[in-house]
Amino acid sequence: MADYIKFVDVTKCDGCRACMVACKNWNDLPTVTEEYSGSIQSHAKVNAHTWNVITYNEHETANGGFEWLFRHQSCLHCVEAACEKACPEDAISHTEFGSVVIDHDKCVGCGYCVQNCTFDVVELATYKDKHGKEYRRAQKCTLCTDRLEQGLEPACVTACHTDCLIYDEKEKVLSEAEQRLAKIKERFPNANIYNPQGIKGTTTVYLLADKPSVYGLPENPKVPLSQIVWKDYAQPLGKAMFGVTTMAVVGSVIAHAMNREKGEHKGGQDHE
């Protein structure tokens, strides 16, 4: 099939949350209540049972006015996905549609994907087996891969009444996005198309009204070198030489190093 992407033009979003409802309905996700924080935003962020959230950011206009900047927050389905690199069980992979999905039969709930997700969208959900024993599995947006396999659009896209969300051929969408960007530059001088090449692009691409950081997005995300070395070199070689048991130990050591690296990176950002 043609190379398709989900495109999000945040300047067309009116914050109606229809995409959130459609996602819950299609994926049969349970209700998640949160303590009221004083914000009109329904959830602080996406979580294991809420796979997309409309975020609200207060924005002061050039003439001193005020408006809301909305964003449809969900998994971006990175071409080079840090969660996939971090997974020691090969439970995370890319589909033919470019979506990043989790195989729950392979997932052991270790949480390395959660700790290393570039956009902080993966979370662990807790379940109980027939004996009442609790276990955890990683959860996030699947880009409605089950719908794509049937020739349907993602549920969130079908529910959007402003055409903020589009699922179409990549080249066509990006060409139209450039035209749209040129039109809104006068109103939003910092507007940009967010498709970070440090992770080789994403299957969910944004037209943002302001800098990525305004929306809580990293300006130029990259997969840490330690994750690339672990997934692409150390893990395959280790399995061939030492066996799965030994690799579990090696994986634990490398995962610890990755987590420390991420923590140091965040600490450096805070210091700045």
Question: Poorly predicted ranges (pLDDT <50, ≥5 residues)?
Answer: 268-272
User: Could you say what the CATH architecture of the largest domain is?
Assistant: 2-Layer Sandwich
Number of beta strands: 10
How many domain regions? 2
Mean pLDDT across all amino acids: 87
Task: Indicate the multimeric state.
Answer: single chain
Please tell me how large the radius of gyration is: 19 Å
Structural class: alpha+beta
Gross morphology = globular
Strand percentage lies at 15-25%
CATH topology of the largest domain: the name is Alpha-Beta Plaits
Pfam family, one: Fer4_11
Keywords: 4Fe-4S, Iron, Iron-sulfur, Metal-binding, Repeat
GO molecular function, one term: 4 iron, 4 sulfur cluster binding
Protein name: (4Fe-4S)-binding protein
Characterise this structure.
There is one protein chain. The chain has 272 residues and is α+β, with helices and mostly antiparallel strands. It folds into 2 domains: 1-220, Alpha-Beta Plaits (2-Layer Sandwich); 224-272. Helices cover 33% and strands 19% of the residues. The chain has helices at 18-27, 82-86, 112-116, 145-148, 155-159, 170-184, 225-242, 244-271; strands at residues 4-9, 53-60, 66-73, 92-94, 100-102, 123-128, 134-139, 165-169, 192-194, 204-208. Strands 8-1-10-9 form a 4-stranded mixed β-sheet. Strands 2-3 form a two-stranded antiparallel ribbon. Strands 4-5 form a two-stranded antiparallel ribbon. A hairpin with a 5-residue loop joins strand 2 and strand 3 (66-73). The longest helix is centred in the last third of the chain and has 28 residues, at 244-271.
